[in-house]
Every structure is written in C-alpha cells, then in structure tokens.
Fold this sequence. Notes:
The complex is a heterodimer of chains A (208) and B (180).
Chain A: H1 17-25, H2 30-42, H3 44-63, H4 73-79, E1 103-106, E2 109-116, E3 120-127, E4 132-135, E5 141-148, E6 150-153, E7 156-158, E8 163-167, E9 175-177, E10 182-189, H5 194-201, E11 202-205
Antiparallel strand pairs in A: 1-2, 2-3, 3-10, 4-11, 5-8, 5-10, 6-7, 6-9
Chain B: H1 2-15, H2 18-38, H3 43-60, H4 71-89, H5 119-128, H6 131-142, H7 147-154, H8 158-179
Amino acid sequence: MSGSSGGNGPVRHHPGEATLAGYVAGRLGKLPGVVVATHLSHCAECRAVARAAEAVGGLLLEEVSATPLAPGSRDRTLARLDDGPQAVEDPPTLDGLAAKEFRWLAPGIRFAELRRSEDELLGLLRLRPGVAVALHTHRGSELTCVLEGAYRDGASVYRRGDFEEVDQLVRHRPVAEGPGDCLCLVATRGRVRFATVLSRLWQPFQPF
Amino acid sequence: MRADYSQLLIEVARHRDRTAFAHLFDYYAPRLKTYFLRLGVAGGQAEDLAQETLLVVWRKADRFDPSLASASTWIFTIARNLRVDMLRREPRPAAAEAPAPVADDAPDAERVLISADAGHRLRDAVGELPEPQKRVVMLAYFEEKPHRAIERELGIPLGTVKTRIRRALLALRAAIGDAL
C-alpha cells in the first residue's frame, strides 16, 4: 500500500484520530472540515480511515434506540416527496470556494480569505521562502494543509498534502522553504474576533 | 437485514418506489430522531431534522453506491451533514472546546483500506469493543459532547477519553485490516 498521491511524494503528516473522528462525526465545524477534506483528497490512507469511521457512525445509528415520531409524521414526509428539490448543501470543498484577493499581512506574507463564520476562519496563506510566521490562536485550534511548496516547523517539513494541527498550547513557527512560495489552506476555530485574528493570529516575524 | 435496506434504497433510486421509501422511513426516522435529540436538538426540531434527512435520502438516492457504503453509513453521512449545517446556525457554547489534537504516531501500516466486504467484520468489531471504549465513541459521535464534557460525564481524565477513542478506532481499523 502506498501513501503517495498528488505526484509530489508521500504525504507524511496526517490528522490525529480524534480530529478525523471529529470530522466524520460532524463535530469539527464546517470550515476546519474543508482543511481535513483537502488532506483527504491527497491521502488515500486517511480517506480509508475516514470511511471506516463513517461506517462506525452507520453502525451506531442502527444501535441507538428508536424514539417514537409524532402521529402522521411519515405521511407528512411522504406528502413532501414531490416537492421541488430544496437546496441541499453539500459540505464545501476547496474547489467550490472562491478566494478573495490576497492581502498583504506582513513582509512576505499574504492572506486570502475564503470564508468565515462567527468563530471560524478559512483562508489561503502564501509565504515567501525564508519567511517565518508565528501562528497561534488566542484560544481554539488551527488546522493547516499544504497546497503548494513546503514549510519547515521545527524538525518537520510539511509538503503538499501534509496536515498540521495545533491548539493554543502549542507554539509553532513555520518557515517557508524554497524555492517557490508556500501556499497553505488554513482554518482556525476559536472565540476570536476577526479583527484580533489578524493581530494575534498572524504575527509575522522576520527570518532568524 | 442490512442488505435489505441497501436494496430498498436501490429501489427508491431506480423506481422512485414509495413503499420502499416508507420502509426506510419506518426504520431510520425514529433512530435519526434519537440521534438529533442526543445532539441536544429540541424534540420538535429533532423530528423535523429526521424527516429532512429522509427527504434528502429520497432526492439523492441515485447517489447511493452499495459497493462503497451500507445504507446506514450513507444515511449517517447525510444526517451528519445536516448536523454540520445546523451547528453553523445555532449558538454553541461548546464551540471553544475544539477537539484537541492527538499525537498521530500510528504506523502507516495501520492505516488500512476498507472495502464494503469488511463491513460485517467492522460491525462485529464494534459489537466486541470493550464497553468503556464503546461508550466513549458513542458520546463522541452521537452527542454534542466535546472531550472535556465526556471527561466530566464519565468522571475519567481527558487523556483517558482520547486514549479510548484512539484505541477504539485502532481496534476497528485492525479488524477491517484482517478482513482484507
């Protein structure tokens, strides 16, 4: 079994089981879910784990007790079968999201917002080689999937398809590796206002 | 029995078979209502969401592929997607407690592929999970319980919650691996 995909070497850094299970269970949130889904598109092994976890969800659905429905519930539902198709939104994917323009955040760092909700932010971060950025949320979590290029964080190098997750307890300081820019999909979740996200979350540092 | 539900779904997809749909409704809607109730949704809305899930099943039945997933698994993912949608709109006091990352040091060999044939093995494996692991997985999947809340509810440390979830998933993964 090979873990390689995406034509750029094997994916080496994966979400933890708790994150995958949270994604599958629907607990992770919509925008962080896009980052996990993007990793899954690069990683057959994690796709398999996610599918196994979904199968667990199906089995649990069979195991739960049945709660009686209100009288006439089935008939009311049957009567609605011929209603026109209502908009049923599939979970968003990276392909389905339009990015706003990249904005300058700091020297060598640009950010393009894809979508945000009250406590989630999803966007693309573009780092010039050699530029370090300290990413940390005030509280909450942060998920990253590399789309192009690579960055180094401590002893690890994250390349296309690789996934990194940090929470507020972890300080990390990724540095983009050359030769090209490093493009990452990043989602944050936590009780931070967007105005403070920029100042607290994307604190730029010059290279060492 | 489970194969029957898959067959009913196929009947719905191919022939827009309302009788088949009614059978699916009778089996799944009360369970879906339980599912949404456990997520903290109020009774009336839980019933609405259960109905809504079945309506999506009707509309998207042609997307069901029995070689990829069981009927229950497919319907679970539809309910799950409705849940994610719902989470976005509802206030959620637990939002600050995002799932904490767990160090992923599982060897790659353990990341096995699942086939539809492995479904039965997986089902047995879930049945054979030690009760504490099963309970934790149930809470994590089927109730709006961040790990911290599970910690409080079961009176076990957070690290143990994470370990049990991790062990349960590894056990399930291993079971699927054996079936390949």
